[in-house]
Every structure is written in structure tokens, then in C-alpha cells.
Amino acid sequence: MQAGAAAVVGNERISMSKLNADTQAYLAALKKAQLDESALGVPANQAVLQRLVNVSVSNQLLDRHNVQVTETEIDNALKDPGQFQSPEINLLANGVAPSDARAYARAMVGLTKLQQQFGGQAGQEKLIQEFSSIKPIFNPRFGQLNGQRSQENPALFVDTGRFGKLTLQAQPAQG
């Protein structure tokens, strides 16, 4: 782990300053949309870090497989409301501030194209395998990755505790 890094993903370093700046932009976007961080179920910095890691892995895969995404494809993806009533809410639900929307959309469109390039159901399995091949290394301050995320325990990380016993990180109060 490099000093000042929130995570190292393959050949890319995600700095704590990048994570903090993106988290602040994300919290401001939530506030502007009159949404509360507690609706995420995880701390905002975890949602943003997960998005930064996923975009980094995606971009590295797109480069590896020479997948190109056009500006028009990105524009169209940004108009998609997804499972929510608006594209903005859909992005916010995925830990994406408006300032990061184009990079996120490029990654998502690229992954869809890569899955199609791999072909059918086998393509989805190959995409999962490829995505999993780039393993992020997280700053120990976050704890250990939660391999068993669920509705009851949605946190990205679990606290390893002082004596190595795994404990759940405190979640923001649900209000």
C-alpha cells in the first residue's frame, strides 16, 4: 500500500485526497437532491470508494480488450433513469456525483460492450472472471473487505478489531 492511497487497483492508485474530494462532491450532490446519506446504508466514503474502484477496474479492462466508447454512447447512458425516477438519482444511488458522471457512464457502457464482445451467458461469466482478476488493495484504515454483504450488513468493510476479531462497522443511524 502506498502512502496516502485509499486503494491501489491494478496499476492505478486512488489517493485519499481524490476519495475525500469525490466524497465531498457526492455529499453536496446528495444534499442538492434533498437526499440523506443514511439512505445509502453505508458511509458515503465507502460508496464513493467502491465506485472509484469499479471504474478503475472497468477502465483497465476496456484498455486491455481495446473497447472504445463514444461520446454519444456516454450521452445516451447518462439519459437512462435506470431503476429510479431520474438519471441523477440513478447516478447518486451508485455513489456518483454529477462531476464524475461521464467517467462512470463510460465504464458502464464499456462493460456492456465487453460482455457483448465475449458473447451471451458465457460472456457474462467471462466478464465476471476478468473483473475479478484485478484485485484492489484497500488502505487498512477501512478494515477488511466484507465478503458477505447483505441487507442486514451492507457495509463494504468490516472492522477487524484490535485483537483480530471481525466486527461490523457502526452504520449511520437510520432516521
Index terms:
three-stranded antiparallel β-sheet, 6 helices, 49% helix, mainly alpha, 6 strands, globular, disordered C terminus, 175 residues, Triger factor/SurA peptide-binding fold
What CATH calls the topology is Triger factor/SurA peptide-binding fold
Count helical runs. Answer: 6
Note the gap between the termini. 36 Å
Strand content: 5-15%
Describe the strand arrangement of the main beta sheet, using strand numbers. Answer: 2-1-3
Written description of the protein model:
The chain is mainly alpha-helical. It has one domain: Triger factor/SurA peptide-binding fold. Helices cover 49% and strands 11% of the residues. It has six helices and six strands, in the order ββααααααββββ. It has helices spanning 16-32, 44-64, 71-79, 87-93, 101-118, 120-133; strands spanning 5-9, 12-15, 136-138, 144-145, 157-159, 167-168. A three-stranded antiparallel β-sheet has the order 2-1-3. A three-stranded antiparallel β-sheet has the order 4-5-6, with no helix packed on it. Strand 1 (5-9) and strand 2 (12-15) form a beta hairpin. Helix 2 (44-64) crosses helix 5, helix 3 packs across helix 5 and helix 5 (101-118) packs across helix 6 (120-133). It is globular. The model is unreliable at 170-175 (pLDDT under 50).
